Amino acid sequence: MATQHSRSAARWMIAPAVFVLLVWMLIPLCMTLYFSFADYRPMRATFEPWIGFDNYVSFLTSSSFLDSVVTTLQMVGGILCITIVGGVLMALLLDKPMFGQGVVRILVIAPFFVMPTVSALVWKNMFFNVDNGLFSYAYSALGLQPFDFLSQAPLFSIIVIVAWQWLPFATLILLTAVQSLDSEQLEAAEMDGAPALSRFRYIILPHLSRAITVVILIQTIFLLSIFAEIFVTTNGAFGTRTLTYLVYQRVLESQNIGLGSAGGIIAVILANIVAIFLMRIVGKNLD
Amino acid sequence: MGRITLEKVQKKFGDVEVIPPLDLEIDDGEFVVFVGPSGCGKSTLLRLIAGLEDVSAGEIRIDGQPATDKPPAKRGLAMVFQSYALYPHMSVRKNIAFPMKMAGMDQEEQDRRIAKAAQALNLTDYLDRRPGQLSGGQRQRVAIGRAIVREPAAFLFDEPLSNLDAALRVGMRLEISELHNTLETTMIYVTHDQVEAMTMADKIVVLRAGVIEQVGSPLELYREPRNVFVAGFIGSPKMNLITGPSAGQHGAQTIGIRPEHLDVVPSGGTFTGTVGVAEHLGSDTFFHVHVDGLEEPMTVRADGEVSLHHGDTIHLEPQPDKIHRFDADGLRMA
Ligand SMILES: Nc1ncnc2c1ncn2[C@@H]1O[C@H](COP(=O)(O)OP(=O)(O)OP(=O)(O)O)[C@@H](O)[C@H]1O
Ligand SMILES: [Mg+2]
């Protein structure tokens, strides 16, 4: 009886939260869905509630769509590569006892607390800037021609900025995984004659594989919606227009809300496909 | 071959001296057991021999070759850990093959050795399982298998049976002893269980706070413990250690009488007391006797058929040639 009571009480208590969640998530989604089938261009005062799949067709067939998907994949893939490789190395490094360990760990985690817009601005103006960025000084000091990162290698520059932000996250998760490795296993491997590199390859890396898949999953979900870094640095120019950015341009720059909404729905579907795909991999790894 | 010599080996962690300089000689083919209370430095000593810890001073030689500065892999020793330390993501076969793979042995030889080890350890049916799918005893056997295939100069065991239940422990104890008989390789075995030490060892090394208290065969330690500590540590149930006037009669500070060397007599006897707890094991009965004038209760091992109960009066007579005498420093008197 008591459990039935508490169960119904629990239902009442979580009701407000569920309600807020529904309002928060469902209403925008439904409105997007609704607009995606409409021809809605407020600047031209056009509003036709039902035009079928026209928006979808024109979004999918425009050449910028495929380009943006490729750009998105390149960007997410590049960031994942840097953060995973860097994260594993940092985690192994931070696991070693050293002087001032506590301070170093906090410093490593710090970039995660910097807002995306701020970090993009800092990188743009203090590091990448041709006239007075740190990299330009370094290049001149070495007697080289300063390199304009943001216009010569825009995609790479954005990847570097975002990877810098996400490296702490990967490091943190991987560090806890490294620390959970039974030290006797490493000692056993050492006695079995495995040199340091083999111990990494056969013992540490397999132990980290689960944490690595979790990092990939979480980061991918967040990285698919990178926006501020592109907005602040290149404005989507020079082949840095991701799917998210394309949707933004359609809605706000071309003021075509119907087309943008269709793009948004397509992005949601693609993101879900990626998520399901990743969940499968994680599921396999969590046996 | 597996002669291990320790010379003035010392270990400090920071300022704490865990093992003061000690000498020890382990002969080829010997089964040596390190035994002592928790925290006395048994594991540390074993890890020094394995090379997993660096010595602070002194020298370790294996087969006459200096090994003090050699890395663990180069010492030709294999270790079985208390937690087994199997590689969880590899199958049993891969676990056993790992040391051979690292040594770059060819596949045929690897397969042959795996088959042989699996045969000897009853693991043939489990070769394709992961360690997580095995019982504690099977995991233990995999760990031993991984050690065997390397054909090491000596095996090092660190409390390998402490995670097993009592029945399995007895079984594995026998298996390890049998393995020693067939392989005839040096084995160093760490335990704090004196029964394991007594039953398995050719030679027991009793440690206390990093100091070797006595080295000898199980029966030597049983018959002639060098001091009060060894006397109290070896033997089960523990030796009765008596101080005061009763000891003075024998001209000693402390006398020790093993429970099995006390006879229950109908009347008279050196000690008279009342039975506290009587433990009937069937074959034997252990009486805990409160003797007037002694602080600690005495333990007596009597025949299983002796029927005395709580509160009964009991008369005890020690067997005269089985009394151990110790002086004021706790050392054995001749
Ligand atoms: N890495 C270390 N740093 C500092 N002190 C240590 C370290 N390892 C062990 N010690 C200390 O050395 C002493 C001996 O430890 P050791 O592990 O050898 O004991 P043991 O005899 O194996 O005990 P047990 O039977 O409980 O396993 C202990 O007092 C322990 O606190
Ligand atoms: Mg120990």
Automatic annotation (TrEMBL), chain B:
Keywords: ATP-binding, Nucleotide-binding, Transport. GO terms for molecular function: ABC-type maltose transporter activity; ATP binding; ATP hydrolysis activity. Belongs to the ABC transporter superfamily. The keyword Transport applies. This is ABC sorbitol/mannitol transporter, ATPase subunit. It comes from the Bacteria. InterPro entries: AAA+_ATPase, ABC_transporter-like_ATP-bd, ABC_transporter-like_CS, ABC_transpr_MalK-like, ABC_transpr_MalK/UgpC-like, Mo/tungstate-bd_C_term_dom, NA-bd_OB-fold, P-loop_NTPase. GO terms for cellular component: ATP-binding cassette (ABC) transporter complex, substrate-binding subunit-containing; maltose transport complex. Residues 4-234 form the ABC transporter domain.
